[in-house]
Design goal:
Length: 337
């Protein structure tokens, strides 16, 4: 298969996973240009993967005529700048989560995508995790029945992560936009738009590098427009706990799914069934799955699963969380369209 969809990657942390597509003979995508501020990493990955064009200037990468789509994996606070440049150049875009870091930026991205008639995907890896994909299939097929309650978590000791990526304490990263976006998007995949949130938040003071007055632990209560109620644990200032970093619980009137375990009411004595997947290649596999999905959308001219509007709704929900924290009251989620 001809490799005739040129890809440029901005940010070679998680963005390095996009390079795996070069070895996929079933894909027409090919990474042809790399951009990163770490010149040693840039040089090493370019040589390792045979990518001849490397640069520390994202504008140079975007301007290349052999680049059809851009993968954006830069620090969160730079996403809008890079999205705007790529969109106005007419490039299709995959942007890692969070799409952007404010409600105003989210609305502007929606308009940029429309104005420039491009495809846009938010790289929310949670939707491409096999056990969560299985839960979604069971739910949509009606095996779990009518939803009664749901929960999700993203709980992660961020101290070693900040060792590897110091921008997270230098910028600093906003954990609601950059962390809670995972479980917010995951639950929205099941239940649609969030109507209202109520949030408790605290500052852990676990890491002296992170500003002492910035919240890093969150308990988020949500009500969806469908009427479903749910909760999210988004906790980043703690000692790494002995549980899955990301978790999901869907509780219906026919069955319950928690992480990778399933109970169906119709089976006598309600045995606990555990789903085991032979291959679950972590973030690399998740990135390849959403790249293949995006490629299918390019060929079929269909909207990606997590497009700019879906991404903007997640940002609007995170923004409402901050409203609730500031006021101590429930907060409605703003419209983004």
């Amino acid at each position: 298969m001809a490799k005739d969809i040129g890809v440029g990657v901005i940010g070679l942390g998680m963005g390095a996973n996009m390079l795996l597509v070069n070895g996929d003979a079933t894909s027409q995508m090919e990474v042809r240009a790399l951009c990163d501020s770490d010149t040693a990493r840039l040089q090493r990955l370019g040589e390792q993967h045979g990518v001849s064009h490397i640069t520390d200037d994202y504008r140079e990468l975007i301007a290349r005529p052999d680049i059809d789509m851009v993968g954006i994996y830069s620090p969160d606070h730079l996403h809008f700048e890079h999205i705007e440049a790529a969109a106005t150049a007419g490039k299709h875009i995959i942007c890692t989560k969070p799409m952007v870091v404010s409600l105003e930026q989210a609305r502007r991205v929606v308009q940029l995508v429309r104005d420039n008639d491009i495809k846009f995907l938010v790289g929310q890896t949670s939707r491409f995790v096999p056990r969560f994909m299985a839960a979604h299939k069971l739910y949509k097929d009606g095996d779990l029945g009518r939803p009664l309650f749901a929960e999700a978590h993203y709980v992660h000791d961020m101290r070693p992560v900040m060792d590897r990526t110091p921008w997270r304490h230098e910028a600093p990263q906003d954990w609601l936009y950059g962390g809670a976006c995972h479980p917010i998007d995951l639950l929205s995949w099941f239940f649609g738009d969030v109507d209202e949130v109520f949030v408790y938040a605290s500052c852990s003071h676990m890491d002296d590098r992170y500003p002492a007055d910035k919240h890093d632990n969150f308990l988020i209560n949500l009500r969806f427009r469908s009427g479903v109620i749910a909760r999210i644990f988004a906790v980043y200032g703690l000692v790494e706990p002995p549980l899955p970093m990301q978790g999901l619980g869907i509780y219906g009137d026919k069955g319950s799914f928690v992480n990778d375990q399933l109970v169906l009411d119709k089976i006598e004595w309600q045995p606990e069934m555990k789903l085991e997947f032979r291959r679950e290649a972590g973030h690399g596999g998740e990135v390849l799955r959403y790249m293949r999905h995006f490629e299918e959308c390019l060929h079929s001219d269909t909207r990606p699963l997590i497009d700019e509007v879906t991404g903007a709704k997640v940002i609007a929900t995170a923004s409402a969380c901050w409203d609730s924290i500031r006021t101590g009251l429930p907060a409605k989620v703003a419209d983004v369209t």
